[in-house]
Amino acid sequence: MPPLGRSRHPASPTRDHASRPGSLIDPQTLFRIKSLQLRARAAVEGFIKGIHRSPYHGFSVEFSEYRQYTPGDDPRYLDWRLFARSDRYYVKRFEDETNLRCHLVVDASRSMSYRSGAYSKSEYARTAAATIAYFLTLQRDAVGLVAFEDRITDYLPPRHRPGHLRRLMGMLDREPQGRATDLAGPLDQIAATVNKRGLVILISDLLAPADALRTPLARLHSRGHEVIVLRVLDPAEVGFTFDTPAMFQDVETGRELYIDPAAARAGYLERFAAHAAEIERICTDLGFVFQPITTDSPLELVLFDVLKARMRRAGGLARRAGPGRGAAR
């Protein structure tokens, strides 16, 4: 049964058609690929074919310290002069080893299990996260993962090293248990533990009171993180496209109610629009990128938003660095 009170913006999200990638894969076709990593790869390759790729400018990094070599470290960072003196392998560590440090924050709560079609919001969100991770890894960016329900259930720090993407994909591929949603607690934990500034991409249906989101999102802002909020919901939730009276079930509480959609639709859409507008207002006030997206939207559009944010960040870094301080080469 469809979830009680689970809906989204009255219209599907749009992008500037002039700036969309030219080749978009229908999600129904994409989700026929069983392997999550192959699905992500197909979405990324489709995206890349549809855009004119511009070269990214690199940024200098500041040497921080040495640490002993461990299997899996990039051998390019081995310091052979120090090896000659100590007969031990050491690698150089840097303050910022990549152009970008990204945390993917993925909602795995029970409300994300809803589906009106062949795949759920959770499957779409996890595929979106996998697609972003695959793309950023190709760009030599460090990507990490935080999965949460009413608490953080999985955490993988951002890395860019052999085997890291495979481990991240394995974590995303696990079917979530689906407990109640508590966005405030996990976001507070993330703000407290993620010290180095970077990009935080929150992928969630945001089915929580808007007031409960303001404070934890503000904490991320106070830490200096850039934040992209991708609100993922099912098309049936957006327009409340149910026709016949039926028993509706809240997938988080299990509560059931008999509802006549014709009588409930107007009030439902009004309350939903007010909630959506408040969430967008919070994100706008904090300077976050906010993008609503339905599960019938091509994954390339998600990548398009992330790429825009990434390039904007690169431009900001270059301006702050200035001549002689690691500006873009």
Automatic annotation (TrEMBL):
Matching CDD domains: vWFA
Domain VWFA: 99-262
Domain of life: Bacteria
Region (Disordered), start-end ranges: 1-24
PANTHER family to which the protein is assigned, alphabetical: BLL2464 PROTEIN, DUF58 DOMAIN-CONTAINING PROTEIN
Full protein name: VWFA domain-containing protein
